Amino acid sequence: MTTATDTDTWINACPAQRLAPADGVAVLLPNGRQAALFRTRDDELYAVDNIDPFTHAAVLSRGIVGDRAGEPTIASPMLKNVFSLRTGQSLDEPDTRLTTWPVRTTGDTIQIRTRASEEETP
Fold it and tell me: Which site among 2, 5, 24, 84 is 20 to 30 Å from 43 CA-CA?
């Protein structure tokens, strides 16, 4: 679970009922970046970059939600590169990683925090 500070901004991404298990949706963030929001079959929510780093196409929200050895994943619909939904790390190319964003449900709405997880300092 993510705890946000007063300076964090959460945006409404979509109604919770809009996102079915193993489904994804593209979300335009206030800074112009695109996130791909997913609900896994075990009802977990994740948000990663929507831009495929290998093809530079905005397609990851249409990818295949899956699992690799217990790790929730998204496979690009273009070249089938697989990424961890938890960390954004490519499971095929060790030097490639997607940005991830914290996600929460508030009432009937799924929200994404506008500050990316990778930009935080430990």
Answer: 5
